[in-house]
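Q: Sequence in, structure out?
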Amino acid sequence: MIAVFAPDMLKNQWWLIAVAVVVAATWAVFKQRQTSPSQWYAHGNFTIRLVVGDLFQQDASAMVGMTTTFDTDPTIIDASSVQGSFLCTVYASSHTRLDQELEESLAATKPVSRIVKAGKPRAYPLGTTAILEGRGAIRYYCLAYTEMDAHNRAQGSVRGIVHSLDKLWDAVDMHSNGAPICVPLLGQGQSRIPELTPEAAVRLMAFSFFLRCRRNRVSSELRIVIHPKEINKIDQTEFQAFLRSLATE
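A: Exactly. Output:
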């Protein structure tokens, strides 16, 4: 533009063009860089955001998905699952200690059926949440959002997840004192809910939390934690747009 109106100004000053190109390229990269989706909602004063990382390295309370039988035996639960990582990271692979604490937390909850199978036979209601104490103020919300069959195969449904999330928010409301809550990507892997894609799962969890906090804020922040290997399955730009659209509701 300068050259059009003042061509003599650029004589022997081609380095200015190089500087302009570098500045323009740097600005373009800055504007196009991928940022983690995050949205604050004034009505309710809470935040929903998506982060890439380890669920158990967030220095915050976390939800751990389990089945209605709360099986923990490594021969039944996949070591690569969130629950398997929970057992290894938090309980140093001691499923007997985890079982003991689950039993204590579930002592006041009545099982609804018995399943003849290897492992634990007692099945609790869908949405049952066993709350385990972590270090400091951290708590682990062990949420039964899938059901185990006689062959130790976990099966779930979108309706079951919606119901279970409602129960989770109840537990968080009662025990978290408004602290952030971290959740993993639900409905994947062994839970066998093929219609719940990663894209649909993050929106479902965010929307469930949004609706609950609009009525009664249960936590200052929902942090959806995605494993680095799974993040490429989610369009972060589209998810940010989804979160932003909720702010206009």
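Helices lie at 2-5, 15-32, 82-90, 95-105, 158-175, 198-215, 236-246.
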